[in-house]
């Protein structure tokens, strides 16, 4: 059911090529960070050099949190990061949290919650840390940050701090949730769009400035959807990481698009940075990259219905991202 990749056969076949190349070393690839169900991971650094990761509901928590002193070895914390909810959301389906550190030392968590007004569909919520502990607790804002329920809802938020200090949030309009059936409810025509939106926010991280703009959408090579956006800036190039296909499909992956302006246009590289069969992964996705562009967390099925979190070292040169 969960095939292991025949790395021996391929490894031997590639060996002469690897030896002949002066720069290309064979990637060591991701390592297991959290050997438990911890999907859609994101992470934030604390001022003391440690790291905190956040994951979709699981292990009895609404939002899961883990910590690491060095990004290498991770520990799941027995702590509820989001102990109270906004009035707009039900108590199920808290997905894909993302945390940023504000200039005032507090943290903002963006997450997806299910709308009471439209069960089965989701809005993006924002919550602010009570103190300056990145693990929370986080206190939700009374109203959702983004909904767009007419177009399927809003999920998979991720914060971004631009070079000039402007803050943004990217998220996905969950069009496949109002699709016509099939793979992730969106492989039967007419296929619904699943646009990735960019919303400028004030310094507080939670107050929108103007209207969101669309920066990406699915095309037929992406299957039913694009989702799980994560934006970074590296040496003048904006990198938008995202996943394509249905999360249960072996075609789920991590790709990236690049732009020279934050609002785009973004050009899809169509590079599958992580895909099934590579590095022993199964339906990898939900990738989040550090602002420095040197490390990443993502999930992959490690057992049926269990998405473990893996960490990887990456390197960016020009417009190319490489897994180390
Ligand atoms: C698929 O979308 C339709 C609306 O277009 C909705 O009624 C149905 O519940 C959705 N199915 C799933 C599995 O989400
Ligand atoms: C990742 O980078 C860290 C820090 O440079 C290093 O100690 C570690 O060995 C690397 N791990 C892999 C798998 O490349």
Automatic annotation (TrEMBL):
Keywords: Glycosidase, Hydrolase, Signal. InterPro entries: Glyco_hydro_43, Glyco_hydro_beta-prop_sf, Glycosyl_Hydrlase_43. SUPFAM superfamilies: Arabinanase/levansucrase/invertase. Gene3D superfamilies: Glycosyl hydrolase domain, family 43. Residues 1-20 form the signal peptide. CDD domains: GH43_ABN-like (cd08999). Belongs to the glycosyl hydrolase 43 family. This is Endo-arabinase. The lineage of its organism: Eukaryota, Fungi, Dikarya, Ascomycota, Pezizomycotina.
């Amino acid at each position: 059911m969960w095939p292991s990749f025949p790395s021996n056969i391929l490894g031997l076949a590639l060996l002469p090529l690897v030896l002949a190349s002066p720069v290309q070393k064979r990637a060591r690839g991701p390592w297991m960070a959290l050997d438990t169900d911890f999907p859609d991971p994101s992470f934030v650094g604390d001022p003391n050099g440690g790291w905190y990761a956040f994951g979709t509901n699981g292990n009895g928590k609404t939002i899961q949190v883990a910590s690491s002193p060095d990004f290498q070895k991770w520990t799941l914390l027995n702590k509820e990061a989001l102990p109270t909810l906004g009035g707009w959301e039900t108590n199920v389906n808290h997905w894909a949290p993302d945390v940023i550190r504000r200039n005032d030392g507090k943290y903002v968590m963006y997450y997806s919650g299910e709308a009471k007004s439209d069960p089965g569909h989701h809005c993006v919520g924002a919550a602010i840390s009570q103190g300056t502990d990145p693990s929370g607790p986080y206190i939700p804002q009374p109203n959702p940050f983004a909904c767009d329920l007419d177009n399927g809802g809003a999920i998979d938020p991720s914060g971004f701090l631009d070079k000039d200090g402007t803050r943004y949030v990217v998220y996905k309009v969950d069009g496949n949730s109002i699709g016509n059936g099939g793979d992730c409810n969106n492989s039967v025509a007419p296929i619904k769009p699943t646009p990735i939106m960019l919303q400028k926010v004030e310094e507080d991280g939670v107050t929108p400035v103007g209207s969101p703009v669309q920066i990406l959408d699915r095309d037929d090579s992406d299957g039913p959807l694009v989702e799980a956006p994560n934006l970074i800036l590296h040496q003048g190039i904006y990198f938008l990481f995202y996943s394509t296909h249905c999360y249960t499909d072996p075609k789920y992956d991590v790709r990236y698009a690049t732009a020279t302006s934050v609002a785009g246009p973004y050009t899809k590289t169509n590079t599958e940075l992580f895909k099934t069969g590579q590095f022993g992964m199964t339906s990898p996705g939900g990738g989040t990259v550090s602002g420095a562009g040197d490390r990443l967390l993502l999930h992959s099925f490690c057992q049926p219905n269990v998405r473990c979190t893996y960490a990887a070292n990456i390197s960016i040169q020009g417009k190319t991202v490489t897994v180390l």
